[in-house]
Amino acid sequence: MSANNALQVSQGFLTAVGTQMFRYYEDHIPRGGPVLVVSNHRSFMDAPILMTTLERPIRFACHHYMAQVPIMREIVTDLLGCFPLEAKGKRQQGFFEQALSLLDTSQVVGIFPEGTKPMVTFTQPDHLGKFHRGFAHLALRANTSSVVSSGQNLTILPIAIASLEEVNTSAVPLKLLSLFDPSEPLFNQSSWHPLVIYRRVAVLVGRPYWVSQHQQMEYQGKQAKEIVAELTHYCQDEIAQLLRQGFY
User: Fold this and answer.
1) In which band, very low, low, confident or very high, does the pLDDT at 190 lie, cut at 50, 70 and 90?
2) Are 114 and 40 a contacting pair, CB within 8 Å?
């Protein structure tokens, strides 16, 4: 399925479910060029929510197991256009290759830096877990290696999804998912995979971030860790502040 069809599917799905969505700070959304969307993540609905917010197709990196489970595989890869991470061992290299290729053609790539945990263990709507730093490395590599060849700078766009009203139920036993990805320790427990359905949700678009020339130079030197930490903290702090706003 084409990327544009993924956007139409997302919009149609939210209409069918009857989810009320309230968008804030839409003026922060870039109207073109390559974009790296960074967001919190608790529900399978987050991808269609973000696509509908930007009104652009977004290519999301998703967990390896999602491309292995029947029905889920068709939804996330065929309908929503997500690109699943590879099996453990090849995961990081495959992620960078696929994401950089997409950004090179001025597409929008979506990352959920909290990883798998908030999706497979129930968390409160205002909870924000620690961010993994892979997205920051991706953003810096895209700029320093001139991967973004369209002549437009890469925009890093933090977005907060604040669930104001939701229904919580269970999907499948986590141990069942371990059959598809035995390398994931989170699946080695007796609980069930939560299923969070938004009824009313606020989406707050954060202030865009652009990698400076100075940061590009530092990323190739001894200060690389500090630059990665700076970008990671910016996005995590921005989303945390927006989440707090969303519940007032």
Assistant:
1) confident
2) yes
Q: What separation in angstroms does the CA of 106 have from each of 34, 101, 195?
A: 4, 9, 33
pLDDT of residue 1: 47
Q: Are 206 and 242 in contact (CB under 8 A)?
A: yes
DSSP 222: T
Mean pLDDT (the chain, rounded): 86
Residues 6+ apart with CB under 8 A from 237: none
Residue 1's nearest CA partner among 69, 62, 76 is 76
Q: What is the DSSP letter of 129?
A: P
DSSP string, 41-97: --STTHHHHHHHHHTS--EEEE-GGGGTSTTHHIIIIIIS--EE--STTTHHHHHHH
With CA atoms as reference, report the closest residue to 197 among 75, 30, 20, 68.
Answer: 20
What three-state secondary structure class fits 35?
A: strand
One-letter identity of residue 224: A
Q: What is the reported pTM?
A: 0.88
Q: What are the boundaries of each domain within the chain?
A: 3-246
Taken in order 156, 142, 54, 66, is the CA torsion positive or negative? negative
Cβ of 210: how many Cβ atoms within 10 Å?
11
Continuous segment of H or E residues that includes residue 207: none
The number of angstroms, rounded, from the C-alpha of 137 to the middle of its chain's C-alpha atoms is: 15
How far apart, in whole angstroms, are the C-alpha atoms of residue 168 and residue 153?
40
Beta strand ranges found along 28-173 (DSSP E):
35-39, 59-62, 83-84, 108-111, 155-173
Predicted pLDDT of residue 144: 65
Q: Which fold has domain 3-246?
A: Glycerol-3-phosphate (1)-acyltransferase (3.40.1130)
Those residues whose C-beta lies under 8 Å from the C-beta of residue 5, and which sit 6 or more positions away, are none
Taking alpha carbons only, the member of 134, 96, 79, 91 closest to residue 112 is 134
